[in-house]
Structures are given as C-alpha cells and as structure tokens.
DNA sequence: AAAGCGTGGCC
DNA sequence: TGGCCAAGCTT
C-alpha cells in the first residue's frame, strides 16, 4: 500500500525510511547526545515500564493527542484496568468509552478509540497491528500515532514526529526559534536524517528528542542552560533570533464559544446515568441558538443520541 | 486545506 | 487577567 494515499503530500515516506535506514544519521553526535541525556533524565512514565502492552501504548497515544501527560496518567490506568484488551473495549457501548474519557477533552477521541478497538478486533484478531499502514487505517490514527505505536510498542524503525520533535529540530538543526507550520514530508525527512540506523536505538531516539522538547527545549521558556546539545544548537549559535516565519493560527477564545457549550452539555451527559431533558440542557447555557447548534453538532458527531423526543444520552451502542 | 474540536495549568 | 500552550486528527 502506498503511504501517500493517506495524504496529498508528494512524499513516499516508506521509501524515505528505507533509504535512511541504510545510512548513518546526518548528525550522529547530536542524536547520541540526546539519547544519552534521555538515558539519565527520562521521566518514569507508565508507558515506559517494561511489559507495557501495545494496546496500552495505543491508548496512551490517543489520550496524549493534545492532552498533557499529567492529566492522562490517572485516566490511562483506570482505562487499562477496565479494558485490558481491544476486545474488552469493543464489547461495550461507545458511550461507556466517552464517559470513562472524563474531562480529558476532545471526546471524539474516545469515540475514535472505541471504533479502532472494534477494527482491531475484527481485522487483526484483537492484536494491535504493527504495520504503519495498518495502523493508519484505524479510526483516529494519523501519521504521529501510527509511527509512535510501531516504534514504541514494536520497536520498528520509523521517524516519529510530534510537536516537540518539530520544535527541537527547528532550533537545533534549522536555527529558528519555532518550527514552520507542520509539513508531513519535510518533517519526516528531517527526522529521518537524524534517526540512528539500529531500530532499538531509533526507538530510543524518537522518545528522547520528544522528551527533550517536552522538558528542556520547551515552547515558552526553554532551559538552554541545562540543554545537553547547547554546544551543537544552531539556534544558540545564531544568537537566538526571534521567530520570523509565517504566523501561526491563533487559537480562538474558548470562553463563550460553541466548544464551551459542547463541553457543558457533554459534562452533563457524562454525569447522569439517565437521559437528559431539553429543559436541563436549557439551564446550561442562556443562548438558545448557540445551545441548539452545539447539541446538533454533538448528535451529528455521534457523541450524543436522542433516546426519545427531547431527551439525550451518551451513545448506547 | 483551513478550520473545528475540550480542558486546565501556567506566567 | 487572559492569552498561550499541550505526544493530533478529521473533514
């Protein structure tokens, strides 16, 4: 299967990865320094424990899509205790997954994870696939998550590029304060150029550069004084120039937004174990137009269902 | 392909 | 205070 079928980007990343596999990383010192630092400074996180399952890795990656580590950890352990395999999750109604998602945010991810569990059960005998294209074919899994699971759960050699990785490469390699807007092909190529040849070392490096971006080379206030690659950093060498690339899209204000209204309705649906009435929903938000727009959106997304006229609940099945 | 999608912590 | 940010994905 052609990986580019999943994207308009004219890059054959499979060929890219196999070509890179035959060569040493472009900056072996940089890669080695980051991995060595990781060996000494990696946080003790659940998904880094020995014996953590591929399913656990997949669940953690879903939860970590846009939600900070510290908020994920307690939900993840509850989740895996309750649903230790994909089949266990697939056997309950999607609304149960949405309820257990609690306040992690972006509850569509819970729906997608539930759908992916069903697909894994049906297509892959209940075993999380290890092939990137098989992973990409699952609902809610994109370029980052597919490669993260293949690399971290199965030890395969793939470039794993997340927002932390992009930032570290932008600074250390490119010499810019912030990365340009994400570009699938360019990002995979840049990471491939740094990736160690050995699969195990590559998996470590993927985690290591993410970790460096998460706790040292941070977005707001990078701790350059304790950075293990400060002497090799192109941004430092250039005198820490300010970012001058294209402006990033501003995140819209949450207060008063449709997203806030959706969140209030979802919180109500999660909190009650019986259908919620129109009257109860009215009490959540004063603006009727915005309220009905939010509710219609939740119904369209499958996050809520109508149990009978004027009554709503989480999806039952 | 730009926009939409939650929630909470931080400075 | 309020804007910014957080292991992205889908349409």
From TrEMBL:
EC number: 3.2.2.31
CDD domains: ENDO3c (cd00056)
Domain of life of the organism encoding this protein: Bacteria
The keyword DNA damage appears for this protein: yes
Pfam families given in the database record: EndIII_4Fe-2S, HHH, HhH-GPD
EC primary class: hydrolase
Gene Ontology BP term (one): base-excision repair
Gene Ontology molecular-function annotations: 4 iron, 4 sulfur cluster binding; 8-oxo-7,8-dihydroguanine DNA N-glycosylase activity; adenine/guanine mispair binding; metal ion binding; oxidized purine DNA binding; purine-specific mismatch base pair DNA N-glycosylase activity
Catalysed reactions listed for this entry: Hydrolyzes free adenine bases from 7,8-dihydro-8-oxoguanine:adenine mismatched double-stranded DNA, leaving an apurinic site
Record domain HhH-GPD: where: 63-215
Similarity comment text for this entry: Belongs to the Nth/MutY family.
PANTHER family linked to this entry: ADENINE DNA GLYCOSYLASE
Record protein name field: Adenine DNA glycosylase
Organism: Cryobacterium lactosi
């Amino acid at each position: 299967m052609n990986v580019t079928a999943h994207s308009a980007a004219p890059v054959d990343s499979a060929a890219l990865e196999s070509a890179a596999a035959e060569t040493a990383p472009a900056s072996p010192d940089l890669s080695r320094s980051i991995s060595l630092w990781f060996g000494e400074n990696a946080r003790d996180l659940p998904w880094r424990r020995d014996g953590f399952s591929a399913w656990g890795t997949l669940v953690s990656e879903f939860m970590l899509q846009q939600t900070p580590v510290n908020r994920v950890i307690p939900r993840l352990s509850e989740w895996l205790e309750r649903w230790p395999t994909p089949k266990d999750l697939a056997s309950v109604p999607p609304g149960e997954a949405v309820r257990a998602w609690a306040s992690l945010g972006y509850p569509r991810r819970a729906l997608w994870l539930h759908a992916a569990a069903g697909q894994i059960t049906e297509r892959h005998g209940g075993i999380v696939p290890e092939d990137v294209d098989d992973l990409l074919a699952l609902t809610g899994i994109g370029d980052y998550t597919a490669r993260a699971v293949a690399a971290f759960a199965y030890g395969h050699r793939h470039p794993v590029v997340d927002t932390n990785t992009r930032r570290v490469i932008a600074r250390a390699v490119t010499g810019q304060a912030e990365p340009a807007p994400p570009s699938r092909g360019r990002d995979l190529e840049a990471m491939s150029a740094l990736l160690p040849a050995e699969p195990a070392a590559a998996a470590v490096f993927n985690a290591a550069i993410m970790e460096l971006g998460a706790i040292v080379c941070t977005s707001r206030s990078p701790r350059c004084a304790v950075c293990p690659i400060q002497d090799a950093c192109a941004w430092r060498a250039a005198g820490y120039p300010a970012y001058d690339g294209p402006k990033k899209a501003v995140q819209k204000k949450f207060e008063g937004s449709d997203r806030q209204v959706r969140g209030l309705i979802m919180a109500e649906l999660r909190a009650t174990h019986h259908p919620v009435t129109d009257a109860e929903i009215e009490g959540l938000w004063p603006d009727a137009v915005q309220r009905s727009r939010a509710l219609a959106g939740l119904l369209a997304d499958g996050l809520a269902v109508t149990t009978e006229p004027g009554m709503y609940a989480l999806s039952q099945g």
